[in-house]
Amino acid sequence: MKNTSNDPITLIYAGGTFGSYGRPLAPLSADVFLPTLQQLLTEQDNADHLPKIAWHDNTLIKDSSQLTPLDFVHFYQLLLAAYAQGNRRFVLITGTDTLSYLGAFLAEAFAGSDICVVVTGSMRPLLDSEMLHAYNIDAHSDAWDNLTDSLKLAAAGESGVKIGFGGESWPAQTVQKIHSHDLMAFTGHSRAAYPANSYVRDLPDIRRQHWLDDQQEVVGNITVLAEQARIHALYCLPNDTEVMSNQLLALLSQPPCGIILLGFGAGNVPYSETLAESLELAYQKGHIVVCASQSPFGGVSDSYAAGSWQYDHHVISGGRLTIPAIYARLLWLLLRYDSPARRRQRWLNNVSQAGTTIKKR
Questions:
Q1: Cβ atoms within 10 A of the Cβ of 290, count?
Q2: β-pair type (160-165, 168-171)
Q3: Where is 164: in which H helix or E strand?
Q4: Strand partners, 90
Q5: Cα torsion 258, 264, 266, 271: sign
Q6: Degrees, nearest 5: CA angle 293-342-273
Q7: Model-level pTM?
Q8: Burial code of 34-53, b = ≥16 C-beta within 10 A, e = fewer?
């Protein structure tokens, strides 16, 4: 098995605030920003203490609020191809709007591997826009610290997909953005459920090749499915239940998709016979409905009658998973498995492995 501890960290730049510059702020093109970043890394006083970097070409650079399932698959394929070539440690720079969604998706996609990916970004641009005739690091930006911390985290080589931000790091599927402009914009926790604990510390070469073979067998089909994949969110508000029932019914004419019910508190959803019938119909048509909480912490439970009724109608509990993690898991299931029954079975298997209690009826 190849020792990768001395190999360079593969750095992928995908845009976002990190590489924005000027008045008004706008992303610099990769052919301008990357040589600038490379030069700045070389010139820093602590350059000798940073790991070696290998720059990886990426053609998809856009504002992260514009990312789609097809774009998520692009980054999965980019990392998969590099991983197949023997690269194991990566830092991915992206925008913060969908950073937690992309990180959670990659965590789903690379479960079972020994890849090490650190996803990061910044709330303020790396470059000082007050200096319009030279590219210099903005001393008030969080970008430089986020990058150097992420490089050091990747150098440690621990398997898994993590998000590094604001001096902290967490398993990707536990992370959510909690502030729209503060530098401490993200939070997460270390008690992650599957698939954060499904990475392998060191895969023997034969097992790694088997994992890669399985992925590459379906990667072409995943790209096709990504063009059609849809995840919808229905947000509970103090409305008549007819509103949500009508929203749900409007989705049922579409191909099987993922639907997130954003309930109150611990996942409470207002009951009506019509809504219950709509959930039954959604199940029959192959849609996967998952209940999540509007609250940022705590997740959902079936402790309250106001929430437990939905699980009698094939709604799946989102447990403690964040909304980005639920979105990512639903998307991966839609891309990876070809039938509603297999998707549902795989979700329940994942939850079971995590030791999370789910009400099964």
A1: 24
A2: antiparallel
A3: strand 160-165
A4: 10, 117
A5: negative
A6: 50
A7: 0.92
A8: bebbeebbeeeeeeeebbeb
- Whether 93 contacts 12, CB under 8 Å: yes
Q: Is the backbone of residue 129 left (phi > 0), alpha (psi -120 to 50) or beta?
A: alpha
Per-residue tens of pLDDT for the chain, all 361 residues: 455 667 899 999 999 999 999 888 888 888 889 999 989 988 876 666 788 898 899 999 988 999 999 999 999 999 999 999 999 999 999 999 999 999 999 999 999 999 999 999 999 999 999 887 788 999 999 999 999 999 999 999 999 999 999 999 999 989 999 899 888 888 888 765 555 667 888 889 999 999 999 999 999 999 999 999 999 999 999 999 999 999 999 999 899 999 999 999 999 999 999 999 999 999 999 999 999 999 988 889 888 889 999 999 999 999 989 999 999 999 999 999 989 999 999 988 765 444 343 343 3
DSSP 3-state of 276: helix
What SS3 class is residue 231?
Answer: strand
Inter-residue contact 55 to 87 (CB < 8 Å):
no
N- to C-terminal Cα separation, the chain? 46
* 8 secondary structure, DSSP code: P
CA–CA separation, 322 and 174 (whole Å): 6
Q: Please check whether residue 113 is in contact with residue 201, taking contact to mean a CB–CB distance below 8 angstroms.
A: no
Distance (Å, whole) CA 184 – CA 123: 9
CB contact set of 161 (below 8 Å; sequence gap of 6+) = 103, 106, 107, 110, 115, 117, 118, 119, 171, 172, 173
Here the tokens at position 99 are 């950073």
- Return the C-alpha torsion angle 239, 240, 245, 247, nearest 10: -40
